[in-house]
What we know:
By secondary structure, this protein is an alpha+beta fold. The protein contains three helices and nine strands; from the N terminus they run ααββαβββββββ. The strands form three sheets. It has a five-stranded mixed β-barrel. Strands 1-2 form a two-stranded antiparallel sheet. The chain has a two-stranded antiparallel ribbon with strand order 4-7. β1 (46-52) and β2 (55-61) form a beta hairpin. The protein is globular.
Amino acid sequence: xxxxxxxxxxxxxxxxxxxxxxxxxxxxxxxxxxxxxxxxxxxxxxxxxxxxxxxxxxxxxxxxxxxxxxxxxxxxxxxxxxxxxxxxxxxxxxxxxxxxxxxxxxxxxxxxxxxxxxxxxxxxxxxxxxxxxxxxxxxxxxxxxxxxxxxxxxxxxx
Length: 158
């Protein structure tokens, strides 16, 4: 009995020590969600499913809360998700979660993302969060390129 108690006590101590070390490295940034009111509206976008013969067709549906932001200047914080390789980018996606975190492993599916078109010179890629200001535009036909929601003439704000 004493050996069993000792074994389970040792197992408990090891598991607490291991869990205390996981994710507690001060050199690893805390990747918190950048969710705000703009992101919450973006996250409400859905798809209407229709059929063209036997082929499914997904059409973006923009609810009223999101539709009210169309062609408006918005501020959006997030993490850069490059679309091409390189150190600088004029066009990329921005997400509420960092690219270093698995986009497909979250409990609630893929996080919301929008495509960004920078006004002026390309900006250097960073894994740190950025805050952008630009015009929100909806792509009526995403099958012809670009994502369903875009931020155009974007600039970095502090």
